């Protein structure tokens, strides 16, 4: 069992829909990252969280340390949001452990 | 543009070839990483260089050989690879993780490697 589990694995939405991607982890962490991987392979860091909630434009990330759970929300989704969203946690060893990713497709 | 540049973007090589992947960062970071991303699998950490010293080698086969000549440059030398080594190889950099200090990793665009 992977230390970081994401759900759903695949998600298809219509433009404008509110989207939620979930991440659960089983180890104690010092930080959690949400990453966006574009179809060509390049990865962009969206958020780094250790508690609470962060917001950048239409993206919102929350984390509940007690429940070992984080969510990434996208409001008013757009086709350009189509990508793979990856959750990664930095645990006690200071290594990043990655989830398998959630492939999001937003249709116009 | 993340500040981390990888070359080449695509590479096709035979099993008897020797090639190298290059990564360069202009962010002033002091830790650099090689990751392998195979289809439908999580990113796998291959090597970590922190303060120009290799600190982790997660039992990667010896046909992969990293080199970090300075804090801005990282290479992955490839020799007698197998078809199952075909994958996306990603470089990342960050400040060296220290307990209590959160760091953010910045990734390159990756090199799509195909071994034939």
Task: Kindly describe this structure.
The complex is a heterodimer of chains A (108) and B (116). Chain A is mainly β. Chain A contains no helices and 11 strands. Chain A has strands spanning 4-7, 10-14, 19-25, 29-37, 43-49, 52-56, 59-64, 69-74, 83-91, 96-98, 102-107. In chain A, strands 2, 4, 5, 9, 10 and 11 form a 6-stranded mixed beta sheet that branches. In chain A, strands 1-3-8-7-6 form a 5-stranded antiparallel beta sheet, with no helix packed on it. Chain A is globular and about 40 Å long. Chain B is mostly beta strands and 116 residues long. In chain B, 0% of the residues lie in helices and 55% in strands. Chain B has strands spanning 4-7, 10-13, 18-25, 31-37, 44-50, 53-57, 64-70, 73-79, 87-94, 106-107, 111-115. In chain B, strands 2, 4, 5, 6, 9, 10 and 11 form a 7-stranded mixed beta sheet that branches. A 4-stranded antiparallel beta sheet of chain B has the order 1-3-8-7, with no helix packed on it. The model of chain B has no long low-confidence stretch (mean pLDDT 88). Classes of the chains: A mainly beta (108), B mainly beta (116). Chain A binds chain B through residues 2, 4, 30-31, 33, 35, 40-45, 48, 50, 86, 88, 90, 94-101, and chain B through 2, 37, 40-43, 45, 48, 56, 88, 90, 92, 97-100, 102-110, 112.
What is the fold's blueprint, element by element?
The complex is a heterodimer of chains A (108) and B (116).
Chain A lengths: L3 E4 L2 E5 L4 E7 L3 E9 L5 E7 L2 E5 L2 E6 L4 E6 L8 E9 L4 E3 L3 E6 L1
Parallel strand pairs in A: 2-11
Antiparallel strand pairs in A: 1-3, 3-8, 4-5, 4-9, 6-7, 7-8, 9-10, 9-11
Chain B lengths: L3 E4 L2 E4 L4 E8 L5 E7 L6 E7 L2 E5 L6 E7 L2 E7 L7 E8 L11 E2 L3 E5 L1
Parallel strand pairs in B: 2-11
Antiparallel strand pairs in B: 1-3, 3-8, 4-5, 4-9, 5-6, 7-8, 9-10, 9-11
What's the gist of this structure?
Chain A is an all-beta fold. Chain A has strands at residues 4-7, 10-14, 19-25, 29-37, 43-49, 52-56, 59-64, 69-74, 83-91, 96-98, 102-107.
